[in-house]
Write a structure and sequence with these properties.
The complex is a heterodimer of chains A (441) and B (243). Chain A is built from 13 helices and 21 strands. Chain A has 441 residues and is α+β, with helices and mostly antiparallel strands. Chain A folds into 2 domains: 114 residues, Uridine Diphospho-n-acetylenolpyruvylglucosamine Reductase, domain 3 (2-Layer Sandwich), CATH 3.30.465.10; 223 residues, Alpha-Beta Plaits, CATH 3.30.70. Chain A is globular. The two termini of chain A are 30 Å apart. Helix content of chain B is 47%, strand content 17%. Chain B is built from 9 helices and 9 strands. In chain B, the strands form 2 sheets. In chain B, strands 3-2-1-4-5-6-9 form a 7-stranded parallel sheet, sandwiched between helices. A two-stranded parallel ribbon of chain B has the order 7-8. Classes of the chains: A alpha+beta (441), B alpha/beta (243). Chains A and B meet through strand 5 and helix 2 of A and helix 2 of B.
Chain lengths: 441, 243
């Protein structure tokens, strides 16, 4: 029997947080029999707990990491990699990088599981060229509620594949997958950072660099008026030659007692100003290790404690390209005037949307911000929701902890397909998260 | 490249030990019953660590097979760890000889039989290390688990004698005495968090202790103190207690 305990669980944002029954099957067969015999419809798989809100929270949580933690195959010639869903991207990188391979798509943390990457259909700084994680899946295996295991890919059971990638674990438990890796010849990234004075300049840098592999901007969300939208836009490419040895610095840990009041409008504003002005030249070139380029925050364990006991909300939305400029102007202005911005405001130009029913990216600009949870935050977010909808935008399930059904469904034209598919296959009788119940998925 | 033989390789502690030594570059010989169940595990270790892992069928209770088991190994390993053990049911063992015998065989006789052979080979070679996983339960007999405790006490004493004998042959013997460990064996027990180790922690402690040629390892370390106190309680008092 799997271990069962009742404990306080939350997503990475530490909001919301409540008690759940957590089942930790030790082996694959424990997991299979548990899923088959479980009759609680409020059940959801749980990986490394890095989705921010309540995507992986439910009355009954299945922590599948221990039961699904094997690497299955690595073809170092072809760059194909197969492993179970509980393996983290960090574990994968440790094996593939020394052999000259890299993840085709990676989000801003390597501490997520393969299952989580598929369920959220994560994207990275190369979305405009490489698309989402699911674009690189050769095949995946899924455990359905009745205990059957089913394989699918783009052309085999395509509906199941479209529902599962980006489907936040609501079709079943993802067991394993084979992915196509990307060849690299160095662990170093050649990075060019453009310092821009306003939103127009920021957009221009993105559009001029569409053929570069990696691009992302840190945006000063406290800047107002003619500085609104000033950013440090970083453009990157893997270096052509260099060493493939993994050198990782020892991570530091954010103390449990870190007082939330340290982060207030004043200190964050000060940080943003200093950070922006730290770079003197309009264009700076340097070579950095891939871990520093892709995963700067992974260097501080538990950085989520920084926002204090009540936690934080990461608010991420995307606007279609044609409304992005006007929309971001209005939204950034609203945020700057509210004075509740964050250290970590990230802007990114995305490529075309894929065919998955709930995948987040579409062609246009996305903005992600952290907000410390406090009473005055929620009215602000409600206002922002409406602005995002006015500009035909939508929200990212992996970050969300609070949007309403009405707000969410307007952004996803295929949401009915997803709902119907779940219903037809009885998935809605077996897998539901706090988030899926709130949004009605 | 060094090679470690793991007996009873399917247990949670053994698997954690395998991961620990694999990460340090050891090739592994994994032995146990229905060992093919470890196929996926072995493949995983191979991919992660670029080491060689092979699986070997081994029945600790079939003493007569032990010599040929060792002979058929691809090589004589640099070191061996045995994680063969059986907690058993104390209540049942009091009524039923079969259960008692099983506890004695699995925890003591099987281990002694196979280690006798390896000890001679290591002594002849003048190198090697032997790690036996015993238990704090062997430090003092308690009514709740004295069958298991007696077998483990026997094993602890065996290891101590072996250490004494093999010292001059440059073969080191480490006795491991885990306290509570969060494993399949203890899955039904309600264990206090502060006193309970995860298998990964036990494996790390074992590796460190073996590399430093320690003689006895309590893990978690606090168990050394707990058992010191428990051993100090006079017998006239201890016999009335319900620990």
């Amino acid at each position: 029997m799997p271990n069962q305990s009742s404990k306080q669980v939350s997503g990475w944002g530490r909001f919301p947080q409540f008690k759940h029954r957590v089942f930790t099957p030790r082996t694959a067969s424990d997991l299979h029999s548990f899923v088959k015999n479980n009759d609680n419809p409020k059940t959801i798989g749980f990986g490394n707990g890095r989705s921010y809100g309540d995507s992986a929270l439910s009355e009954c949580i299945i922590d599948y990491r221990q039961a699904q933690n094997y690497l299955i195959d690595f073809d170092a010639q072809q760059g194909t990699f197969t492993c179970q869903a509980g393996v983290t991207l960090d574990e994968i990188l440790k094996v593939i990088v020394p052999k000259g391979w890299f993840l085709p798509v990676t989000p801003g943390t390597r501490f997520i599981t393969l299952g989580g990457a598929i369920a959220a259909d994560v994207h990275g700084k190369n979305h405009h060229l490489a698309g989402c994680f699911s674009e690189h899946i050769i095949e995946l295996q899924l455990l359905l509620a009745d205990g059957t295991i089913i394989s699918c890919h783009k052309n085999q059971q395509p509906d199941l594949f479209r529902a599962t990638c980006g489907g936040m674990g609501l079709t079943g438990i993802i067991l394993s997958a084979t992915i196509q890796l990307k060849a690299i010849s160095s662990t170093q990234i050649q990075q060019t950072t453009h310092k821009t004075g306003n939103l127009q300049e920021t957009f221009a840098v993105f559009e001029q660099n569409q053929s570069s592999t990696y691009s992302v901007a840190w945006i000063d969300c406290f800047a107002k008026n003619k500085s609104l939208g000033r950013s440090l836009v970083s453009i990157g490419e893997f270096a052509d030659d260099g060493s493939l040895t993994q050198t990782s610095k020892k991570a530091r840990t954010m103390p449990r007692w870190f007082p939330g009041f340290m982060l207030n409008a004043w200190t964050i504003k000060l940080f943003n100003t200093l950070y922006y002005h730290r770079q003197k030249k309009p264009i700076k070139q340097e070579t950095v290790h891939y871990q520093q380029f892709f995963y700067p925050l992974d260097g501080i364990h538990h950085w989520n404690r920084m926002y204090g006991r009540r936690g934080f909300i990461q608010y991420q939305f995307i606007l279609p390209k044609k409304t992005s400029f006007e929309g971001l102007n209005v939204i950034l202005k609203t945020i700057a005037e509210a004075g509740q911005g964050s250290f970590l405001a990230v802007l990114k130009l995305h490529g075309q949307a894929n065919k998955n029913w709930l995948s987040f990216p579409m062609e246009g600009y996305s903005l992600a911000l952290d907000f410390k949870v406090q009473d005055k935050l929620f009215p602000l977010l409600d206002r922002l929701d409406q602005l995002v909808l006015n500009y035909q935008g939508r929200f990212y399930l992996a970050k969300d902890a609070r949007v309403s059904r009405e707000v969410f469904e307007q952004g996803y034209p295929n949401i009915e397909k997803f709902r119907q598919y779940r219903q037809e296959h009885n998935m809605n009788q077996h897998f539901n998260s706090a988030q899926s119940l709130r949004i009605g998925l | 490249m060094s090679t470690l033989l793991i007996l009873g390789a399917k247990s949670d502690i053994a698997r954690a030990v395998a991961q620990q030594y694999a990460a340090k570059g050891y090739d592994l010989l994994l032995a146990g019953r229905s060992i093919n169940e470890l196929d996926d595990f072995a493949k995983d270790l191979t991919i992660r660590n670029e080491i060689k892992v092979s699986l070997h069928e081994f029945d600790a209770n079939d003493f007569a097979s032990h010599a040929s088991f060792i002979e058929q190994l691809p090589q004589l390993p640099n070191g061996v760890i045995t994680a063969i053990g059986y907690l058993g049911d104390q209540q049942q063992a009091q009524q039923d000889w079969t259960e008692t015998e099983k506890i004695m065989t699995q925890n003591l006789l099987g281990n002694v039989s196979v280690l006798n052979i390896l000890a001679n080979l290591f002594a002849e070679r003048q190198s090697g290390f032997i790690i036996g996983i015993s238990s704090v339960a062997g430090d003092r007999g308690r009514q709740k688990n004295y069958m298991y405790g007696a077998a483990k006490a026997g094993f602890t004493t065996y290891l101590s004698g072996l250490r004494n004998r093999l010292f001059k042959n440059n073969v080191h013997v480490l006795t491991v005495k885990p306290g509570f460990v969060n494993t399949q064996m203890t899955a039904d027990m309600d264990l206090p968090d502060k006193l309970t180790a995860e298998p990964e922690q036990v494996a790390k402690d074992i590796y460190k202790a073996q590399q430093k040629n320690k003689n006895t390892l309590y893990t978690k370390g606090i168990w050394a103190w707990i058992m010191r106190i428990i051993r100090l309680i006079p017998e006239w008092q201890f016999k009335k207690m319900d620990l």
